Known about the structure:
Immunoglobulin-like; 6-stranded antiparallel sheet; mainly beta
Amino acid sequence: MDNISRLLLFAGTLMVVACSQDEVLNLQQDTPIQFRTSVERQTRAVSTSVNSLNAFNVTAWDDQAGDYLFENETYERNNDVFTASGPKRYWPKGADVYFYAYAPIASNSNGVTYNDECDIEVTPLADTDSQVDLIYASTKGNKTDNALNGVKLNFRHTMSQIEVKVKNSSPDYKFNVTGWKIAGVDGSASFQFDNLSYTDDAATGSQNTFDRSLWYDNDDDYSASYSKTFDSRNVTDAIGSWGILDGSAILIPQSARAATAYEGSDPSSNPMNGAYIAIQYQAFDEDDSQMAPAGTWACWPVKFDWMPGFRYIYTIDLAELGYSETGKDDLDPIIEDMDIQIKFVDVTVDAWQPENDEDANRDVSMTKGADPFLRFHTEGGVNALSVTGTSRSSETFLEYSLDEGNTWTVLEFDDPVGFGESTPGNNLDLLIRGKGFYNYVDQDGSYLEEKFFVFDDNNQLVECSGKVGGLYDYDNPDANLIYDGQYASLFYGCECLTTAPQITASNVTEECYKLMFYGCTNLVEGPKRLKARSLQDAYGCYNGMFEYCTNLISAPELPATTLSEYCYSYMFCGCTSLTDAPSELPATTLTEYCYSEMFSGCTSLVNAPQMHATTLAENC
């Protein structure tokens, strides 16, 4: 290193990023060159802290002589200062000395190679528990200023620390987690310190970090992977449960693109074409049937942008199940590789064949979960249940059955149709299904705010079950919503309704469930969970959905992480019997009026939801 390249090192204290408290070792007076150190506190044993730093190597340049005073010599902790482990080194008279220090000391076993005081090569070890935290410090001193008190070295972290956290947002799955992996990253580079690239002034915040440009790739090979497995399983079996996994990695600061496909011609060994995080787990469904065997690796593509001195924590939602590590072309969902439980979804029974050979088969198809239609049940007959509405097109219809689906009759929309001729005291089950149904929309674009199903006698309690999606497509009752206001005001003012059907669509539209159960004063049990995770661009989707359901006891789970204006406003307003709110509201960024009056008047509420909001909005 020439003289000119060493001219601009500045006096002062070098602090470190994200420092909770710098710790300076006590002073010991002596004539030989000696050092006092400070290093950022860290929580992981693999990181270097002032307490774990017992030795470092130093190169000293005598600016007056234009030569090394000493090179790459070890200084060790001696009480509360660091002194040379070999021959003592003394201050030259009248000269400034520039010091370049690093730790841990380079060796064949730790992946650190010393080329010169401004060029240190690092290859993070595959064993993350043994990876090292390269720290670096530089300053200058002289006999006049530092012979008595020693030289203060403030080390900075040159690398990036990575931690992985998992959570489970779904009540339908349980996971035993036994490992994590970070793959598709650069596994070797050189830290080449340029003393013109920063000042030695004390600084705070992000100014304390080294610039990532000080890292030079050796080969630009983004094929390295780092993993950690463990015997003790982290069980994530409850909605909203989470935990930081065992261990962390300290890796080269870098920018890496997220994987988008597989590479190569062999599907059994194709690597992904970018960076990803993988979790090793065993998965079960809600009935404890195994969905994925122990040792399954599932991947989540992630774009990395790591800066020196920062810790990055990545949270993986296991409910998304991830992708396979190998495949043919596009990323393969992990569900395709799971051991799938044997089940029967379409079972038919042949009736006794009559003598005239007429087809008398009766389809009693089994469907997973609830009926793919609405079932209205009453213990004493239905007193004139009426259906109102207007047909949107010739393809749109509702039909009903009074004989458990053996025969279906199309409902005419032009006039209300009543059911209630059953003998009082007898049970009655009315099934209603449809194709293309969505609630009435005026020409001016406003949504119907009057009840669609009408019960003339609200003293007759009625249970409603099945899937509301069966009104739009009974062959696919879990299909996505198509129209704004699709089920708005569907049961508006149905005071006799005691139970609600399932809502299984995984998306929402504007005001799609607005006022859906408004004023259902006998409704005790609503849907267990509203599945949509994104409410973005769905203005008022749940607005007033259960407003004034005065007998409703518990609220459905609300897993949405992105919100829209008025999405939950007045949702449970006036629910005076509500004791249990959703377990959490996971969205971190709120929108205007998103929670406005959501629990207004819920005087019996005992358990409030856990809030995750970090960014608020006006009147949120």
